[in-house]
Specification:
Two copies of one chain form a homodimer. In chain A, the strands form six sheets. In chain A, strands 8-10-9-11-12-13 form a six-stranded mixed beta sheet, sandwiched between helices. With about 700 residues, chain A is α/β, with parallel strands linked by helices. In chain A, helix 7 links the parallel strand 11 and strand 12. Helix content of chain A is about 35%, strand content about 20%. Chain A has four domains: about 300 residues, 3-Layer(aba) Sandwich (Rossmann fold), CATH 3.40.50; about 160 residues, 3-Layer(aba) Sandwich (Rossmann fold), CATH 3.40.50.261; about 80 residues, ATP-grasp fold, A domain (Dna Ligase, domain 1, 2-Layer Sandwich); about 110 residues, D-amino Acid Aminotransferase, Chain A, domain 1 (2-Layer Sandwich). Chain A is built from 23 helices and 28 strands. In chain A, about 55% of the residues are buried. The interface between A and B is large, with 90 and 89 residues.
Chain lengths: ~700, ~700
């Protein structure tokens, strides 16, 4: 298992030369703009790049109108960025030449490295080593390069820039896969998305998706980023980038593939990256407020919505429609996606009903096809929704009317005036020619053809709002568990329980004492109620010998029971050798949970909590988070369980102590985090949760040095 | 609660005049082709309708070039279909006039009927009554009419036909909502869908979605139908239509809205139809092999796939790609949607690897961007997949290459030759100009931009294949439970249990007998093991008195225990009056389930089975089907439970008797079906399932006359 050599100290300055070079050399330059070594030059020229462009090719003096140099050393000025469009076997030498020239960053198109197996892997390592010696950053290998619309920087051979650059805008796209990245770039153009930066990271021998994300989040010209990734190499940078994004109110949507068995295998054969477990990745996404996109269109819809709309202020959706059917459909989707549809105020409803008796004024506000005969109805209804409805988000279904020669321009005016100054996300559902769509979009109005997608996009905006607000939330602090020395070998059950106790997790106490006084003292230490048992190898049936006393409520009861027990046993089993009295707390009824940590090869320790036994085994009802987590976040995890109601008291049972469970989850997560190298996994199973606390009835720790 | 007045005897002949009239009258005809009374005439003329068209308007002699009649009676020939484009208040009179004229069917555009409340409802009932008197069928009111491309029949004012009719094809669209139906029609045109029939049913005072579906399924010109509905009025016709569709290998996809609370309310305010419970509706869909579409695009993708592709033969998906990333993505989606991705045969993999060392030959077959430099690779790989891979479905990711001026035509040739004669559904992912897309589609190749949607469409084809195959499956027969007389009043627990017993469902037997011989006889009747208890009001602690014997394995044991019991009790409690011996079977450990039936206001009785207690209460782990069902189908339901593994033995427990559970579910469904009017609901909770049978430990029947 090869972990990234990336040190994680990346910051945006390190990538400045990649995105904003002053001078560029193309090693392997071609006069043919259709070839890999020709395309970037052609793109640079078309994009109006202001810096210096130096084609390098020993066979030519001039390429695409530019002076060509026989080797990189021959270039007169300094070179920030070098593109290597050459065979894999020639790369090591070229990197060395770049190093001597003082190149800051290399965009390495060449394939045939780690993605093709051991030999390629060795070659990639060699190239890395040379680059590190010279302090050169590398994008790739096996990548398609990047595009920066801000300055016309185009070190890429993607066919996605053929036929034109994306329109101006504030969207960033990051993709591990080159060919899929080209697909995304092409899609973004047909979807009128303003993509200002696009980058393909390939094998990520050095520069990773996470670093590119951090760079884009730091950039003033990007508001929203879509990432396509197969695996994540440096989650710590991803986390830092997501935190920055949340703090800055920038949206990140991530499409991560390789979840399925075959897909995950295909990732391994296809790139050199590790995928980590999907549950861990999902936990990271959830925790830091990015939105997972499960389909490409979902990702585009989120990018489209966030790049066009004002920031959402909440989750209350107002629905305006000329079709009752579409209204019902949108209400369904909204409920599914946790948006609410509060009714319009009663007086407003009464007014609208009087105005349009065939309509429905509640919400969805259905103005029916009457809108065509009585046009002011549209503006009046929209105004009422904006001014009196108190909605955070608006959606309006007007089907092909929005693009019709008769109604289109009128509707455009009504809608843009209606939402002007409201600062509310507004999605329109309908069909219109592209020129008309562009007019709506210029007013900040989104247009969708499928109502479900419109509502989903609005719900994404509401989720980002929640996430941005959560950035400032006080989560409390992590519990202090002090320094705990771990045995390095196999950890036995008793030792595991002792470790739990040191971590501050309640475990059953047991003590063997000599007589009634000591039993009472031990009981005081443990807390009541108490169980007392005779300790003697000679007495097989303790109950019949009078050697068991349950449910002792206080010290006096313990003392009395102990005296009676010693006397009774002596009478019934006069020959038995008595070794003492075992004192233990009574463990009450409750709900059993499973709490554990697991070291993810990529994400590091993750913590999970689930309902125990069959719930976990059969129903997979568990919640996962990256470790460490505060008790507050742990509580959130517990409450997210499908079966959480079980913990809150069903059928007249008392609710169990949720805070005590949360404390255990949090402490375990801290223990795992403080001992990343020493602990592979911990499992408390069961953790008995009771109305007045919890107790770890069994614990298993798998120790293990982390492979490097 | 108003149930449909529709008698359910609809058949396709009854709708022939609606879809294929020989002559048409437009009452309320307008010279303005933009008006409701003018549009249908304009459409009829454009569509080249061959029958007679009679505008009716007392104010004009000629309309849109046609002779106009002052009233319907004045029309010289017979009239099959009359469109009423007049105010609601004038409708009753017009229907009467149509009746006198011998009109067969009316398309009633007018709004202001049941959808606006009580007054409108009364008016609708009046119109219905008149129509019934004359035997006239009504489409609407509050509908947008229909379009039949086969004969140019256009009794509709939908704006969805403005700018042209849909292209020729074999798709049918049925919609309850008019405005949403227009949206669908417009979408179908931009999506190049060949829609031959489209109908909007509105309030469904008479003609329903289900009848239209049956008509379309019966039609030779339709292969696949999409329905948009808010509620279903006559499930029996829907079922009949779906059965016919399955038998004929025609696909039906249904989008049903009104699932959410607000959505369901909005349906009520918006149409006059009842929605029924969504779970019951879903059960119907599942049972009869239609596919539920949750979004409009999903519905269109299914229609698109089924109308272009050959029928699928299974669920094995072969993935060809130039992007490893896209391959991974598609593998993920395939697994999610229950398609399998078997690997290519080892020899084929070896051959392809030798041919293209940078590629991946397993499946996904990733030929990488090499495809551009080595074009024959595409055809060779595709042929290998078709000839040696044994796949049922194929998907290929070629992004914008499929439409590129350089590669597009070459790829078109390779793909169409590759799939020719294979009879396999083939989806291509990429971007291309519309003219190019049409060329692919002409070859039966689907084109998608989003890989997830492509795989979902293929998975829908695989599901239809499964469903079509299931049409011939022998499901066994329903259990005979004979005639059971129900009490009409409240049914007490004992009575409920007795009813269960009559239904053939095991309930705990109990018998009070006089002595050992009779106890043994009773035990033989009940089956072993047996519990024996003394019956006496004078003995509060039966165990201490020797009055309980558990787990008696045979008749001799029962006899011996009874004799001993009588003797012991007599000795220990000499003054007690002994009333006899209670004989009951021992009920063993097992898994508790809940089995029930519920009368859905629309669908009739539905039956459900779930894991008992908290599983049902908290995890909502239940499966639902329309009643009645055979034991075989009941078994399928039980196995579909999330927690079904619990029944199959976990942690070393013996599996319980699934067939016995299935028998109970089936019998209960038959009981509910035979007594639709008398039973509102039945609940057996718990049904204890054991390794060797089941027993209903408690039962509750809520009787109730069905409201008419």
């Amino acid at each position: 298992m090869v972990l990234s050599t990336n040190t994680g100290v990346a910051n945006s300055n390190a990538l400045a030369a990649l995105f904003e070079p002053k001078s560029v050399a193309i090693v392997g330059a071609s006069a043919n703009p259709a070839r890999i070594g020709g395309r970037p030059i052609s793109y640079y020229l078309k994009a109006g790049f202001k810096g210096d462009i130096y084609p390098v090719n020993p066979k030519r003096d001039e390429i695409q109108g530019l002076k060509c140099y026989p080797e990189i050393a021959a270039i007169p000025g300094s070179v920030d960025l070098a593109i290597l469009a050459i065979a894999a076997t020639a790369v090591a030498g070229a990197v060395k030449a770049c190093g001597e020239k003082g190149v800051k960053v290399i965009v390495l198109f060449s394939a045939g490295f780690a993605e093709v197996g051991e030999a390629g892997d060795a070659m990639q390592n060699e190239v890395d080593k040379i680059a590190q010696q010279y302090g050169i950053r590398i994008l790739g290998p096996n990548c398609l390069g990047l595009y920066n619309g801000d300055n016309g920087n185009c070190p890429t051979f993607t066919s996605g820039l053929e036929g034109g650059f994306p329109r101006a805008g504030r969207v960033g796209l990051i993709t591990q896969s080159g060919a899929y990245g080209t697909h995304l770039l092409t899609m973004s153009k047909s979807r009128r998305l303003g993509v200002t930066k696009w980058i393909s990271t390939g094998n990520e021998s050095d520069v990773t998706v996470a670093e590119c994300l951090e760079y884009m989040i730091d950039s003033d010209s990007v508001d929203v980023v879509g990432c396509y990734m197969e695996g994540i190499k440096n989650p710590e940078i991803l986390i830092r980038a997501l935190k920055k994004a949340r703090a800055a109110g920038k949206a990140v949507t991530i499409m991560k593939v390789g979840v399925s068995e075959v897909g995950s295998e295909a990732v391994q054969s296809h790139t050199a990256s590790l995928t980590g477990s999907d549950a861990s990745f999902q936990a990271l996404i959830d925790q830091y407020g990015a939105l997972r996109a499960y389909t490409t269109e979902q990702m585009f819809d989120i990018l489209y919505a966030f790049s066009l709309s004002p920031r959402a202020t909440g989750s209350k959706l107002g629905v305006l429609t000329v079709s009752g059917g579409a209204g019902v459909l949108m209400a369904d989707v909204a409920e599914e996606l946790a948006l609410t549809l509060p009714a319009m105020p009663a007086e407003t409803q009464a007014r609208l009903s009087a105005r349009n008796p065939l309509g429905a004024p509640r919400n969805p506000v259905d103005i029916t096809a009457n809108a065509l005969n009585d046009f002011p109805l549209v503006a009046e209804s929209l105004d009422a929704m904006c001014d009196e409805g108190g909605y955070d988000l608006l959606v309006a279904f007007f089907t092909s009317l929005i693009g019709s020669p008769v109604h289109g321009e009128k509707l455009l005016k009504v809608f843009s005036e209606g939402v002007k100054g409201q600062g509310k996300p507004f999605a329109l559902i309908g069909q219109a020619p592209v020129e008309m769509l562009e007019k709506y979009e210029a007013e900040g109005i989104m247009v969708f053809e499928d109502p479900s997608r419109a509502v989903a996009a609005l719900s994404a905006l509401a989720k980002f709002n929640t996430s941005f607000n959560a950035a400032d939330e006080d989560e409390g602090s992590l519990p202090e568990i002090g320094q705990i020395d771990l045995p390095t070998c196999k950890i036995a059950e008793a030792e595991a329980k002792a470790l739990m106790a040191k971590t501050g997790i309640p475990v059953p106490a047991e003590d063997v004492v000599a007589g009634p006084e000591q039993a009472a003292e031990a009981a005081e230490r443990m807390g009541f109620p108490i169980v007392l048992k005779i300790v003697s190898a000679d007495i097989p049936h303790k109950s019949e010998a009078g050697g068991v006393a349950l449910n002792l409520a206080d010290a006096d009861a313990v003392k009395a029971a102990a005296s009676l027990m010693l006397a009774t046993v002596k009478e019934r089993e006069p020959t038995a050798k008595i070794d003492g009295l075992l004192v233990a707390p009574m463990i009450g009824d409750g709900v059993d949970l499973i709490v554990g940590t697991q070291r993810d090869p990529v994400m590091g320790p993750v913590v999970m909590v689930g309902l125990g036994g069959i719930y976990t085994e059969i129903l997979k009802d568990v919640a996962v988070s990256l470790a460490p987590i505060t008790p507050k976040r742990a509580l959130g995890l517990i409450e997210s369980l499908r079966g959480a109601a079980l913990l809150k008291g069903v059928r007249g049972q008392e609710p169990v102590d949720l805070n005590a469970i949360a404390d255990v989850v949090s402490r375990l997560s801290v223990l795992a985090t403080q001992n990343v190298k020493g602990i592979e996994s911990i499992e408390i199973n069961p953790l008995r949760a009771m109305p007045n606390g919890v107790i770890a009835l069994d614990a298993l720790i798998i120790a293990g040095e982390q492979s490097e």
